[in-house]
Amino acid sequence: MEMMVKKHQQKFRKVKDDMSRWDQLQSQLLAQFRNASSIIERLQVLQEPKNYGVFTCISGIREEVLGKQMESLETIFLSMKKTIEEFHSIVVSLEKILRDGRQLMKGGSISPSTKQMQLRIGIRPSLFDCLEGLRIIFEMHYSEYLLKSSIVSALSLKSSASDLGALNQLLIDQPNIPKEEVQFIFDIIFAEEIC
Amino acid sequence: MTSTPYSSSEQMETKLQNPSLSPIPNPSFSSPATRLWRPAAQRNLRNQWSKLLSHKQQWYMASSSGRSHATSLVNDYLRQRYMSAMDLGCLSDMPNIRRKACHKLARQQEIHGRKLLSSYKDMVTAVSHMANTSSSMRCFLKGPASSPLVQFSSASEDKNDNGDGGGIPVFRFWSIPHFENLGQELVQMFSLELSFKRLLVVELLSVSCEEVQQQSTGLCWSDELYPGEFNELSISNLYSEETQEPVLPRIKGWESNTQTIQFNHHPDQEILQVYLTAWLAEVNIDTQRVGDIFSMVGEEMHVNLS
Fold first, then answer.
1. d(CA A105, CA A100)
2. Chain B interface residues facing chain A, Cβ-Cβ under 8 Å?
3. Which superkingdom is the protein from (chain B) (predicted)?
């Protein structure tokens, strides 16, 4: 039993790695989103010929500037898509960790009884705690991934400034991954290390 | 192929000449000279292209610092403009607070203007160097061809010597004119962009607020922005001797209908936003094509130009 708990703790370390990759991707996505929304907000100004001041004397300027901005926007959209795919790969990895954890219970020479599952020795977590933790963390990230990918596809040239603000806030908040709850899970799993 | 010191022994270079690729060489070019010309031309081309690459990098550095100075300048200007509408809280009771603040911002704006001008100067220099470099790709025979010590130079001494080795491929496939055309293509993009940015610099250096009593700089297109500017611009063909002023900006692929430039000394926020976006967009430079040119040339010359 003790060995199994140790093995699970190992898995939680991998989860931690995945989550810190997630954080990196999160700040990457936020930067990409900011760049995209500043271009989208600018497009309206750029479409007005009267806003070209001294450039009015150069023919083609409006078309070219708009064209270049659309090009950069497209590039940003592409890289956002890539970031979303990377989020997905983290979700896949978390799912695999969870599946391996379940396998560990069933595949062993003795599959633990319900009592053993819930057994806590000292401040060590029970096997049930471990599995539950893995499941919750996976599900949080899975839902957050779905949310993010729908936010990114909601982003369009016609998004208004207030839409953009709301979407940005939603991205920052990551409502599906409550920080305290995640911390709580880790506190249970690694209780010995905290003391 | 390395450029080893030349020896007059002819066997050494014979393998460089691939007969199937070489068109009939210029008859005025004696064959030992041709054989020696190639390594010299190769070395020259490698040098010139790596120079072009560093001029390009200088351009991008100057352009990006220019953009940040332009942004600061615009912010200084807008803050002065909206000073009267700004809520200063308890400070509003202080005598002349707005006037003093505006004065300070105007001074800052001036400083940023000077920095912007200096970035512009760096861009002018980068482009004129590019133009010089791209017209120094030929390699001429120096001294009599019969001399035992064959030397080469970048200046023609003989009218019959085009400096292109009679049009033979220098490395694998391309002749000198081919390299020159690609260089010219780069110079054209960057010089059009330079002329475009000049317009922006003139405009931004002239913006001022009515509220602030500073003598209006009131720059015109035909003013020389710093001593020696017109000399440098004429190297890149951006100065017209005929009209005695810099060539008017235009965009590649568009008819130029520029006749008069209407400067606006009090532009709105939206206009300024367009200006800054246009600075960043570098509409005349096809970044993809620039990258392609350098990588194609690099491949042909067996060097890494990136």
1. 9
2. 196, 199-200, 203, 248-251, 253-264, 267-268, 270-271, 273-275, 277-278, 281-283
3. Eukaryota
Residue of A nearest to B284 (CA): A64
Whether residue B14 lies inside any domain: the answer is no
Let me know: does A77 contact A159? Beta carbons within 8 Å: no
pTM for the structure as a whole = 0.78
Q: Per residue in B120-157, is it b (16+ CB within 10 Å) or e — as a string?
A: bbbbbbbbbbbbebbebbbbbbbeebeeeebebeeeee
Give the residue, B152 or B24, on which the prediction is more confident. B152
In a domain, B7, yes or no: no
Q: For chain A, how many structural domains are there in total?
A: 1
A54/B264 touch (CB, cutoff 8 Å), yes or no:
yes
**Look-up: residue for tokens 């908040």?**
A173
Q: What is the count of residue pairs from A and B with beta carbons less than 8 Å apart?
A: 76
Mind giving me the DSSP string for B217-240? Answer: ----TTS-SSTTHHHHHHHTT-EE
CA–CA separation, A155 and B285 (whole Å): 28
Structural domain that includes position B213? 27-299
- Domain extent for A29: 2-194
Give the number of domains in chain B. Answer: 1
CA A43 to chain centre: 29
The C-alpha angle A179, A183, A189, rounded to 5 degrees, equals: 150
CB distance B273–A61 less than 8 Å? no
B226 Rama class: left (phi>0) / alpha (psi -120 to 50) / beta: beta
Question: Whose CA is closest to B29, among B183, B138, B164, B199?
Answer: B164
Tell me the pLDDT tens digit for each residue of A67-121: 999 999 999 999 999 999 999 999 999 999 999 988 887 766 667 777 777 878 7
Q: Each residue of B137-163: pLDDT tens digit? A: 888 877 666 665 666 777 776 777 777
Can you spell out the DSSP letters for A94-117?
A: HHHHHHHHHHHHHHSSSPPPHHHH
- Nearest by CB to B262, from A48, A57, A67: name it: A57
**Contact across the interface for B259 and A45, Cβ inside 8 Å:** no
Q: What does the pLDDT look like over B224-240, one tens digit per residue?
A: 999 999 999 999 889 98
Inter-chain residue contact A59 with B253, CB threshold 8 Å? no
CB atoms within 10 A of CB A34: 14
Q: Is residue B227 part of a domain?
A: yes
* The token pair that represents B300 in the structure block: 């042909």
Which residues are CB-neighbours of B154 under 8 A, at least 6 positions away?
A: B44, B136, B138, B139, B140
Cβ <8 Å between A52 and B274? yes
| Residue B305: inside a domain | no
